[in-house]
Amino acid sequence: MAYPALTATTSPGAALARPLKRAIAGRIVSLFNDQARGERPVARRPDGLFGPNAVAWRVHGDVASMMVGGIAGLMLQMLYPAVLAGVWDHSRFRDDLAGRLRRTARFIALTTYGSREEATAVIERVRRIHGHVRGTLPDGTPYAANDPELLAWVHVTEATTFLEAWIRYAEPDMPGPDRDRYFAEMAVVGAALGADPLPRSRAEARAILRAMRPKLQVDDRTREVARILLTRRAETSWQEPLQQLTQQAGLDLLPDWARRMHGLPPPPARPLLRAGTLGVARTIRWAFS
Fold first, then answer.
1. What CA–CA distance (Å, rounded) separates 94 from 88?
2. What does the alpha-carbon distance between residue 70 and residue 64 come to, in Å, rounded to a whole number?
3. pLDDT in tens, 181-208
4. How far apart are CA 273 and CA 24, in angstroms?
5. pTM to 2 decimals?
């Protein structure tokens, strides 16, 4: 993902804090960039799909809320049978889940902060991959990853959960017009991928979610994918507490109907969970300030 550069200052307090801030920032950067492949954070470019004044720039730049929203989004996406089938039949999620999540984060960073050429290139790459992802559901229904409705479900759940996590852990008083503008901005990426229908406001997103609920289901494969997602071990020991916290916060972000479908109990100690996640989110922002 893209992160702001650490700012230099001559304040004595800031000078003492700088090594700690750099240590925290360095570890967070390592989560989203495969150093073995030479990946570096995506540089923020003003000539991309959106630009510095976009709502997406501030929403997608908040690491903790994006992690929380990402978990909730994945739990919603797997409820759509064709999305689940594509992951089950064509993904190495069992042995490369961290890599899959990292690639998704990089796609979001490139389409949000990269140049227009970078964004277009990564969108075209994903479209080519989708063209090869097809198969048959257990009931015999054919599916294809480039189906507009399938892409719409992935798009609307992802945009909704990213925004809701941002509101909960970063900007609870976010103005209504900014909330709508976020969906309008995200529709640019969704349209380029071939998704339809696309929400361009929060109300439209909620309407699409309601309209598609009758098509959602949970079976043994859904439960297995959810189990792998929620029980995966962190790549390093320091990541484990952060991963556990953001996973629980992501489940807490799910709407009640989705929690019931997944058979999830209410989160334990919800006020403590939200306070802890808010504390982590503020610490990470401080590290990158």
1. 9
2. 10
3. 999 999 999 999 999 999 999 999 999 9
4. 21
5. 0.92
